[in-house]
Amino acid sequence: MQLNTLGVVHTFLEKYVNEGAVCIDATAGKGRDTALLCRLAGESGRVLAFDIQEPAVEQTKALLRQQGLTAEVHLDSHAHMERYVEVESVDCVVFNLGRLPGGDPLVFTKADSTLAAIDAGLRVLRKGGVMAIALYYGKENGYDEKEAVLQHLRALNDRAYTVLISSWANRRGEPPMPIFIWKET
Q: What's the rounded Cα separation, in Å, for the pair 32 and 37?
């Protein structure tokens, strides 16, 4: 395991996503999380990926082709995931909040659509399902989304969800935060 946010998130996903799982990559980006979910869910699983940037959709599709993997990749907002799956039918939802690495630094996730997407993700998760969030913040995208997400997650019903918000104590700058949510059974 790499000792960084994505390494921790990927280790979490490897523990909780099994063959046949239904998974959503809410922020496809370069497609790395989508590819991992495809490998974990296997041929009997279903993986959906969303991004609002056409270059991200194309990069994700290219990576999947290169690795011989299949997913439903949509040029659409993550806030619309409920249009594609039934409520309580998904095993895992993954978010990488922030911006597309190497993309336009002025295009990044924002609190209003992110909170709507998190809530949609919580509704589509089956009982026992999990959500993983890599929360990038600072620089061009600032701190508004970070503060809104943390406040929102802290207010979730503790009988319905368990939320673990992690932070790096001795990393320089603004290291992304790994966040994990379990939907109670």
A: 9
